[in-house]
């Protein structure tokens, strides 16, 4: 089946289920950081710096919550963050 083949290719390319979960969590926190509330009501400047700071704050909260129980997963989320920053 095509979906199974695609999943095998992703694993071959280094995509693990943990990395996919980390990517999904990172995407969710970025979406949360982009909430218009922060820019329209909370006084965060809608600029590159303001958006970056919101992402970092959200990432910090996630890492703080998980660091004791899931340190390896925190490392993967951090890698996903840095890859995203490099891309952008």
Describe the structure.
It is a single chain. This protein has 88 residues and is mainly α. Helix content is 78%, strand content 0%. The chain contains 5 helices and no strands. It has helices spanning 2-12, 17-33, 36-40, 48-66, 71-87. Helix 2 (17-33) crosses helix 4 (48-66) and helix 2 (17-33) packs across helix 5. The protein is globular and about 50 Å long.
Largest sheet: none
Gyration radius, rounded: 15 Å
What is the averaged pLDDT score? 90
Annotation, overall tally of beta strands? 0
Describe, in short, the structure shown.
This protein has helices spanning 2-12, 17-33, 36-40, 48-66, 71-87. It is mainly alpha-helical and 88 residues long. α2 packs across α4 and α2 (17-33) packs across α5.
What does the secondary structure layout of this molecule look like, with pairings?
Layout: H1 2-12, H2 17-33, H3 36-40, H4 48-66, H5 71-87
Defining key terms:
single chain; 88 residues; mainly alpha; 5 helices
């Amino acid at each position: 089946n095509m979906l199974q083949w695609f999943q095998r290719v992703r694993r071959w390319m280094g995509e693990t289920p943990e990395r996919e979960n980390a990517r999904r969590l990172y995407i969710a926190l970025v979406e949360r950081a982009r909430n218009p509330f922060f820019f329209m009501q909370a006084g965060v400047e809608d600029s590159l710096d303001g958006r970056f700071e919101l992402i970092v704050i959200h990432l910090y909260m996630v890492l703080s919550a998980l660091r004791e129980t899931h340190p390896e997963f925190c490392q993967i989320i951090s890698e996903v963050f840095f890859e995203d920053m490099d891309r952008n």
